[in-house]
Amino acid sequence: MFEASAIFDAALLPAMLVALFGGLLSFLSPCVLPVVPPYLAYMGGVSVTELEEARAARRRVLIAAAFFVLGLSTVFILLGIAFSAMGRMILQVQDWFIYFAGITIMILGAHFIGVFRFRFLDREVRMEAGDRGGSAFGAYILGLAFAFGWTPCLGPILGAILGLATMEGDVTRGTVLLAVYAIGLGIPFLLVAAFFPRLKGVMAWMKRHMDRIERTSGLLLWTVGLMMLTGQFAAFSYWLLERFPALGAIG
């Protein structure tokens, strides 16, 4: 029989995988992927053409992108702290909260799949950060603005991760989930900054298949919502421990 502490630790792994995949899908969303090259160029104080052709420009952009990712990670980690702390406060009604969150996430998943559309989720609210292109500090400020300004568009996936963080009811674990989400969203920015010329074809292919990417996002959200409603995250944790006994040593 597995110890309760081991099950709790292993239970975090499915949520971390969802958070990582959710961050990647957020990067591939219609309101993020198309603006990545101009954003990177602006942050690095170069043109898109220089980003394509000049290796020195890409190094400069990569440094700026690192600070940009740090900025957006700051916001998401603070959200993780806040929502996981809230989860501790609502422990007495957590079951009802999980049902509500699960149903809401399934509805948002249906939006992405295309069953129906919430138009306000297709818009982003951009926060201006001033003329700060070309500096590390400016890139960090832009990262903060990005995390706040794109929340309406990122909301469905980000909301699912925040719901999982609230379910944890533990500040450390909730913060880890949002940090993993930030990694899933931020690492592609760094990869594009470092290898933009080689990735132009891949990004063009992704833009052409944006509908499929959205439906994949919707399927992820719908599945997460269903698992929250039915308690399948716990069942999946048992399966992980049975399949990979070494996971019991985590924690």
UniProtKB/TrEMBL annotation:
The chain crosses the membrane at residues 12-40, 61-84, 96-116, 137-164, 176-197, 218-241. The keyword Transmembrane applies. Belongs to the DsbD family. Keywords: Cytochrome c-type biogenesis, Membrane, Transmembrane, Transmembrane helix. This is Cytochrome c biogenesis CcdA family protein. Pfam families: DsbD_TM. InterPro entries: Cyt_c_assmbl_TM_dom (IPR003834), Cytochrome_c-biogenesis_DsbD (IPR051790). One of its GO terms (cellular component) is membrane. GO terms for biological process: cytochrome complex assembly. Residues 16-229 form the Cytochrome C biogenesis protein transmembrane domain. It is a multi-pass membrane protein. The keyword Membrane applies. It is found in: Membrane. The lineage of its organism: Bacteria, Pseudomonadati, Pseudomonadota, Alphaproteobacteria, Rhodobacterales.
